[in-house]
């Protein structure tokens, strides 16, 4: 999500009187096993900075949990409410990240490129020794977690991007990104009726296709969890609390689609998914930061979160979440979501 008041989070976005446009990540270096870009995978060297409100940052938290990278890659959590100086570490004692020693994520951007004029976005990975931003490439970070950080994966970690299925995964993810992940923002930040209705149609056309696809299979591609499920989940879990009303994606709620509602509950109840979701941060960010859409700043009291833990019966379909692997253990104590942010 950008530090500009757009709530997009995943790289820079532009909106206003122009058509909504999501920019490419400016800092696209990769952290790889061989270190081709100068950033080799190394336990303890990097810090992942996220907002729990951001769907794109939420992806990295899920992938990190499923793969067991918690001890290798520390995480810093920003306040869900930004100010004009970017994402801030006001949740930490003294208002500073305890590892990086900075008050604002923009300081890591400035350390990498002095006077960088673009938006400050999460997720971001920072090199701890130098304090410099390494990457804010929200599309690539989790793919590299799955394929380049394998030496640091936990025993029993799932293969989230299996080579034999990558073409299909990529195809599914492309449609999900264009029409669902990004589509809700195109609808929410539209400045004209035709622009809004076009995005609205794209969102629900794709959701209908996904509902049909998932009607007889547990997961989007293959018979185990993959990157495609992670990317769809982070939008679906925010849909009813935020996008359905706030972004005017109101043909129906996810809870009113029996297939998608069961699917997202199945994922939510899978270790590594629901335990990364903070509904309090999500709602406060969108409704308080987007003053152009919600000028009163009032945060809705609903919806009721208790239904997230109800039976979904998706286990009756073929597929096992971790295949021959195992689920992750409980999250580290310091990373547990406060009760106010959970059902």
TrEMBL record:
Start and end residues of each GST C-terminal domain: 159-289
SUPFAM superfamilies given in the database record: GST C-terminal domain-like, Thioredoxin-like
Location of region: Disordered: 316-343
Lineage: superkingdom: Bacteria
CDD domains named in the record: GST_C_Omega_like
InterPro entries, per database record: Glutathione-S-Trfase_C-like, Glutathione-S-Trfase_C_sf, Glutathione_S-Trfase, GST_Omega-like_C, GST_Omega/GSH, Thioredoxin-like_sf
Protein's name according to its UniProt entry: Glutathione S-transferase C-terminal domain-containing protein
């Amino acid at each position: 999500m950008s530090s500009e008041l757009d709530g997009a989070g995943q790289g820079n976005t532009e909106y206003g009187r122009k058509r909504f446009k999501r920019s490419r990540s400016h800092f696209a270096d990769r952290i790889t096993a061989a270190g081709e870009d100068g950033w080799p995978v190394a336990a303890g060297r990097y810090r992942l900075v996220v907002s729990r409100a951001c769907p794109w940052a939420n992806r990295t938290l899920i992938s990190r949990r499923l793969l067991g990278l918690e001890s290798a890659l520390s995480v810093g959590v920003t306040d869900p409410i930004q100010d004009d100086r970017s994402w801030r570490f006001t949740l930490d004692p003294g208002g500073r990240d305890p590892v990086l020693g900075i008050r604002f994520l923009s300081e890591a951007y400035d350390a990498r490129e002095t006077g960088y004029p673009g938006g400050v976005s999460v997720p971001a990975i920072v090199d701890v020794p130098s304090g410099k931003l390494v990457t804010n490439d929200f599309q690539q970070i989790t793919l590299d977690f799955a394929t380049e950080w394998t030496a640091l994966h936990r025993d029993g970690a799932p293969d989230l991007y299996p080579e034999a299925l990558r073409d299909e995964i990529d195809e599914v993810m492309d449609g999900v990104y264009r029409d669902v992940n990004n589509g809700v923002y195109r609808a929410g930040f539209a400045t004209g009726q035709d622009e809004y209705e076009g995005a609205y149609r794209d969102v629900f056309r794709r959701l209908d296709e996904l509902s049909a696809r998932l009607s007889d299979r547990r997961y989007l591609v293959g018979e185990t969890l993959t990157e495609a499920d992670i990317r769809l989940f982070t939008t679906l879990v925010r849909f009813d609390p935020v996008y359905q009303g706030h972004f005017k994606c109101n043909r129906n709620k996810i809870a009113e689609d029996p297939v998608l509602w069961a699917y997202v509950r199945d994922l939510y109840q899978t270790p590594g998914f629901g335990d990364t979701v903070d509904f309090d941060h999500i709602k406060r960010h969108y409704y308080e930061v987007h003053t152009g859409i919600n000028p009163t700043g009032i945060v809705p009291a609903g919806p009721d979160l208790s239904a997230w833990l109800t039976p979904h019966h998706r286990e009756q379909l073929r597929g096992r979440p971790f295949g021959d692997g195992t689920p992750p253990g409980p999250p580290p104590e310091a990373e547990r979501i406060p009760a106010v942010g959970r059902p």
